[in-house]
Write a structure and sequence with these properties.
This is Prokaryotic metallothionein. By secondary structure, the chain is of the alpha+beta class. About 20% of the residues lie in helices and about 25% in strands. About 10% of the residues are buried.
Length: about 80
């Protein structure tokens, strides 16, 4: 069994996520993986799950939040 690095649960169905830099992380649920790994909007604090915009090395949940932080020319894509 493997121990989730977010909640500490020792779980036989845990899974491993490997990042671009080769770091490996073990979780017992997607919720724990999201809590540990999902970027956070630098304006409103939302977790970015499958969306988001990056501007000048900063992450936002959408163009609106990026513009609120002074980023120019940022648009949401659909």
């Amino acid at each position: 069994m493997a121990r989730c690095e977010t909640c500490g649960n020792d779980y036989d169905l845990a899974f491993t996520v490997e990042t671009r830099d080769g770091a490996r992380h073990v979780f017992d649920s997607f919720a724990c993986a999201i809590q540990r790994m999902a970027p956070i909007c630098e304006h409103c604090g939302s977790r970015l799950i499958g969306q988001g915009v990056e501007a000048d090395g900063h992450w936002y949940c959408g163009a609106h939040c990026a513009r609120q932080e002074g980023k120019v020319g940022v648009v949401d894509h659909v």
